[in-house]
């Protein structure tokens, strides 16, 4: 061997990485071979591999078996005679014991000593053990009591002794058939239902603490124990007998993976079932159990974990990134079961299934529903006698099958977890010309979209390593045109590219003069019509590379082009931004003349079904109309064919959908955006109900004083703001102002006739106060401009309607104090409170008697909410205890709500400014301006659209064309 | 190492800094680091002051909290998010190591670490248990040595351990492929394990 200098880290890393992919016995030879005689490299890589292997739980977690002591066998604890150890784990050793009074067998679980040492913890332990003891259900392993056992160095829990096989052991033998798995899942769901109804959360549901008794009954063990012992990460081994059956925990089969290791070096399987919020150390509720339920059901069906990974960190990574191993699910898994899984395994608990009963009902129905189109029936489980016994045990839960198929076929194609359809005004989703494949652009919620493909005759999505949007397959289906990103970052470049549809290799790159795309479409096998800025439609000839102009007019945009039949031209959405809003229409543009004719007013997103029906989007619905032979007119009246789509954006509305040559419709039922774009009522339990989805970020909301309307500031990235007024009963809205600058809070005048707002421009140097009629009947009217550089944040209008209450910049370090700014510009501003202070968010109670504001109370950076009699201001009462910032009054009564961090608190103010105990204390809310309903029971705020309906699935409706034709016939008399 | 001075940034300033970093201005990283450091230290101190005397400091949770608090609402770019997380990871590392150093010093000097000083157990992401504070200090030193040898690997470790970033997040932030991240990550773990726990064969090539 030759002597060589110290190998570079990158060379070492490369060989090390590739070696570790091989089985351990092949690594040494591989390293020698790769090194090609470089002995220093061999030495270094071998040394690193040894270090990694020897690091144990540190850096490279591995098995760290813990041998427990066995102090209790043969002893007597209270009335219990203790026999052998039947399980062991981080939480404690589990023994079999006999209750000498009742003559029954029980399991004793020894808890950590620390639990008993501290009298407060001990008290809590007893209280919780009693609560758990009250939980009695055939699918729940019972807790009988708590005993002291001096020999065990810790308190002992007395548990029902459950005999049977753990679900972990069962899964280790292989995946479980559909019907049996669903049957088991339904029993687990029943256990969760009962516990959740009693207010108990399991917190540590996983296959190893689910036992299947020989009679087929499923028992869930260790309810609430995770919290009882306050050791979230530690595995309680279940009491099982005989020992040979409890193989699940030590099994190393491919289905189980190695046991996981926690910080404490204890063997755990918990990470794989821990929901993201739990992994992040947040408080959890019953939705954590629904997540784990999804993991368990997945694992039963797939035979492998939902979140794959060799080590706890890898699994947690997968959990937090929501990388569900969907392809591992068997193809026969019915859509209903997939839907339950998908809804259980949502990262955002707000959108996760929250009720075990709902999961159970859906599972039962999904087995009862007919098999999806073109799929083989799932095989009935035909396993061992024991399994059949189990099946009989659960058979009663299943409904009889419906004999007849449903009239219209509809299915949901769920995207991989964490992946949503990319926001794009044009065509993130397209069918291939044969209608058998869907291409789409999808990616993580805050990330870029990559091209994906879904063949309708198979399961799962294929992802291509191409970041791009705006897809269109060529008419012969062999090529795919898309806009792809070439350079990263804002202002990064990209361009129109044609790919080989099979290999995804680049065939042709469009001219780089095509940075912006408002959509594009093939019009024949060679030419692509592209929508560009300044109202241009250009034709790129892929074969020759030439670019010609079809239409150009900077007074409008022509976007979303789609081919008209027989190559005669394209339909496009024509968008004109007007001083007050916009106008939209679908126009026909003839090729090659470029002659433009309006076909359908107030419409966007054109597609053609068959060769004679124009489908379009209007008011969050899809419509259809019959085209005449010239494509410039429609025959008869259009009909509404699909309702309940996400509301459109305020610029060029897009509905993400396509129709296929086979008459199918594919659309995205969720919203394709990730910012806080919706306005929702949040109730006193924290549950949101969306009233409007703006599809652009919402920065502020404010209710009119009668609660009938809400004023909303919305717009892209704060450079521009629209003020919209939405009726809270009908959820309909109007844009009353549209400004290209920062727009502050929208404040209502006492008569609810005007919305008052402020703008900041030129680095806050120009500050103006405006008002606009709330019905949008007149343009905004400038009230006054503040002296140079004196920025303000108005937060209220006084009950007499004369003054604006605002926090005005008074000193360095962003110090503001409250001022009254008269609406009448001839009157001077005046400081509200005589003493200096750093105050903000001033609001006067609706009865005009109390002023509330937020200000710093001490030296730390917390602010608190204070109230003072108004207008006397001769008294000061602190309202918040642990921080308060934004404040709001309910219109009726003297109810005050305030925010701090992610919390919202509500109090009533009594006579003499007495403050009630908090009536409501919500946590985990989005960071949003908010307002209170007139009766003080609901809170209006901006909520991310993901809180309602993420764009994480494609809805596929077969037979759409037939339905459309029938509807057109019915509406237009044949 | 002296503590960086705090420099709070408002939302607009922070958005500007993230934008400049994304555009390649590495000098702005220092500004970002100082801002995040101040925020994180205040949050950690708050925890130490108000929570029970025996606490677990979940570094990742804290970093995520700081991130959520700081991230400008109007910056939806993934890169900005990555840079902010990475800076938070660096800041977390500094805070934890300074804290651990203080405690190790107390112990060695038999100093007044009695009541009032909370017992802090640190939980990091993507890493097994650390034996004690001294090991955290050693890890920090080893990371600095690794940075001299292979700065990318050291950065990746900081992002993974202290900011809890996933491989995909690291890849986006550093403009490298996930595969490359994994290669560096594996190498760094092995290298650090050898530095801290030794080559079990006892005569590693590195010696």
What does this structure look like?
The complex is a heterodimer of chains A (974) and B (207). With 974 residues, chain A is α+β, with helices and mostly antiparallel strands. Chain A is 17% helix and 34% strand. Chain A is built from 15 helices and 60 strands. In chain A, strands 13, 14, 15, 16, 17, 18, 19 and 20 form an eight-stranded antiparallel sheet that branches. A six-stranded antiparallel sheet of chain A has the order 1-2-3-4-6-5. In chain A, a hairpin with a 5-residue loop joins strand 14 and strand 15. Chain A is globular and about 95 Å long. The model of chain A is unreliable at 60-69, 230-269 and 370-408 (pLDDT under 50). Chain B is mainly alpha-helical and 207 residues long. Helices cover 66% and strands 5% of the residues of chain B. A two-stranded parallel ribbon of chain B has the order 1-2. The longest helix of chain B is centred in the middle third of the chain and has 31 residues, at 78-108. Mean pLDDT of chain B is 69; it is low at 1-6, 51-55, 106-118 and 200-207. Chains A and B meet through helix 1, helix 3 and helix 11 of A and helix 3, helix 4, helix 7 and helix 8 of B.
